[in-house]
User: What shape does this take?
Amino acid sequence: MIYVNSFKELDVYKLSRQLAQEVFEVSKTFPKSETYSLTDQLRRSSRSIGAQIAEAWGKRKYEKHFLSKLTDADAEQLETQHWLNVAADCIYCSSERAAELLAYCTSIGRM
Assistant: This one.
């Protein structure tokens, strides 16, 4: 069994950081009119996944709190999926790029 010393070593955390960075890059191309709506919502939810995982790590000694934070992380990745679908529907990103980012979300959810 492999033990980690920090949440930063968790594969799920690393993947969530990668997703957040890629969401940031793709959302740079969204219309200016979406700055305070879709762009903001998508960036917030994608960044919150890793934050919730980090908080869960801090509460890992308390099973109910730990599970609650992991549930919050999963909810954030589901919200991110929603906003990615909206972005694809509005043709702000290609369906192929949205599918790539959605695959990250699915992987995070499985972890």
In short: The mean pLDDT is 97.
